[in-house]
Structures are given as C-alpha cells and as structure tokens.
Amino acid sequence: MTGLYFSTPLLSSVATYPPGASFGPRQLRDWEFVWLIEGDAVYHRAGVDYPAREGSIVLCRPNATDGFTWDGHRRTRHGFFHFSIVRTPTSWPAQDLWPVVRHAENNDLLRPLFNHILTWDARSDVTQKRAATALFLSAFVTGCVSAQNPAHEAWPEPVERAWALIMERIDDAQPLALDDLARAACVSPEHLCRLFQRATGRAPMETLRLARLDRAAQLLARSNFPVGEIARLCGFASAFHFSRSFRAAFHMSPREVRAAVRAGNTPPLTPLVHTRF
Prior knowledge:
By secondary structure, the chain is α+β, with helices and mostly antiparallel strands. It has nine helices and eleven strands. The protein has two domains: about 5-140, Jelly Rolls (Sandwich); about 155-260, Arc Repressor Mutant, subunit A (Orthogonal Bundle), CATH 1.10.10.60.
C-alpha cells in the first residue's frame, strides 16, 4: 500500500476474563487492535469512555493512558495484536481522526482477517503478514470493511468436542481429567490421545495445561487480579504450583511478567496451541 510503512504484528493472542474484571490503567508504547470476541466492554482513554459491544474492534494508540472494564454479567474474550506505525498514506485522515471503535457488521472483512492474524506463528510468511496487516489497518481507518465470512477447516470431530469442553471448563477452575475429555469426545482415552497428537501435535492433557497457563498469562498481563487469585481462577492447586509451572513455560515468574507489562514492555509469547474463535 503506497505510503504505508509499519511493523508486522509484534504480539498476537487471545485473553479471557471472568465477569467484572478490569485491565489498566497502563501506558501503551505501541499501537494495538482489540477484538471483542465474546462479551461487551468499555474502553477508557484520556478520560473518555468508549462502549464496545461484542464483535467490536478497538484501536488503542501509543503514548496514552488507557484501560478496559470488561462485561459485568458474562465472561469476556478478546483477541489482540500490537504493531508500530512509521508512515501512513497522505490520502488517509490525520491519526487523531481515526475511529477508536468500529462496531460489528454483517459479512465484514475485519473479524475474519483478525482471526487469520491470530493464527500466525514464527514460521508464517513475512510478506503475507505485512499484506494482511496493511489490509486490516486500511479497512479499519477507511471504513471499507465489507466481505464474506470464509469457512475454516475443522479438526476431527472428537478433538473438536474435547476442545469445546476445555473451553467451556477453562473458566470454572474445576479439575478436568482425560476420562472427562474422552467422554465428551465419545471415544476411548487412548484414541483421543492419538487424534489430538495428529491434529495439534500435543496430548489432550498437555493441551489443557497450556490452555490454563495461557489464560493465566493473559490475566497477569491484562487484568488487575492478584497472582493468587489468578492461580485459583486458572485451576492450579496452589500459588506455588502455579508459579513453578508458569516459570517453566515462560522463563519468568508471574510477578516478573506483570511488572514488565506495567512498565510498558510487551508480554511474553504464550505457549497455547492452535485456538478456534
């Protein structure tokens, strides 16, 4: 896109919150898009409140104090990615005139494209990343967002059913065993392990453990819950067990991650497996 120069996403992931959670205030150093996948929110920036309904996309700009109040009645899930802007086309409006929130539209381009961006990993093609991010930013700024919603390739049905149970139970902090996943998948535990390995590269219980750690990392980076409460919410038997597992996955303690994020640093990449939205 002529005249547009920016970084490809510096970090992309998904965060989940229980009802009534909040995040911030923080000092953001780069740009960030936030997509409300489930639940409503209010975005706070520079003393102004911006309502964001489910499906909305919020543009957070650097060098501002901001924060979110998440849905008080149901869980909230949002996808996000960070990036930097060096130069924009002269035909675009000034940055202070860009939308803060775009609400969902039928067959819009933004949500499928955001979903695509969230699937990237270190092996993804840089040229494709740059083109997709440019299209996303351009569509958001200009308002040209109409598109058809493409279908996604499904996992084997037993894996989909087990994954649905993991996502359903990820918020209740209750124990979940391999037998529970196999029962939901309608296959034997042994067969479910084989299917998970082929589809995701991991065993079902490893997938569950990483899902809980991923949620914990996002709550540390993007909420005000105490560390002990995050351990409980994410299903860990004790704060000690949580901290040990967290350090093994991220090579930082929970408190180190929180302190780094509040100082303006980008949170560490999470180890979560491929996620459906």
